[in-house]
Amino acid sequence: MNDAILEDLVNSQQLVIAMLRVSGEDASARVGAWDLRDIAAHLAATERDCYVPRIRAIAGGENPTLGIFNNDGADFSGIHLDDALDEWTATRLMLIGYVRTLDENQRSGLTGLHERYGNVTVDRYLEIALAHDRDHLRGLERLAGQLTR
């Protein structure tokens, strides 16, 4: 089993959170259509509503059929930035702890069928989560560059 992906997930989350907190000092800061609270709430909701149940279903041998997850239209207006970041941190920590309990077959032998990615294992879904983190990190890095000009 390759636990480097788990460490990468912890590190990417820490970078995204740091960028959100630094950029959060500017109340008008936005990445595309989303303000920073929306991004934090989106990340927390995606972890909770997408990654956790899907990874559990794959590891449980359910061979789930998985559509494209999208919460872009969700109303995150009642959520505070710090609360969303706390939830995302707790959920990611729980997910990583769960994955560490899985055996090799559960992580890389069992699959689900994803509409976009085809057959996905738990480890592949973790890679998808990491790519999602990194995508948001790139947006936040661009924002930080704009804020320092």
Structure explained in plain terms:
The chain is mainly alpha-helical and 149 residues long. The chain has a single domain, classed as Four Helix Bundle (Hemerythrin (Met), subunit A), CATH 1.20.120. The protein is built from 5 helices and 5 strands, in the order αββαβααββα. The strands form 2 sheets. Strands 3-4-5 form a 3-stranded mixed sheet. It has a two-stranded antiparallel ribbon with strand order 1-2. A hairpin with a 3-residue loop joins strand 4 (112-114) and strand 5. Helix 1 runs antiparallel to helix 3 (81-100), helix 2 (36-59) runs parallel beside helix 3 (81-100) and helix 2 (36-59) packs antiparallel against helix 5. The longest helix is centred in the last third of the chain and has 26 residues, at 122-147. The model has no long low-confidence stretch (mean pLDDT 93).
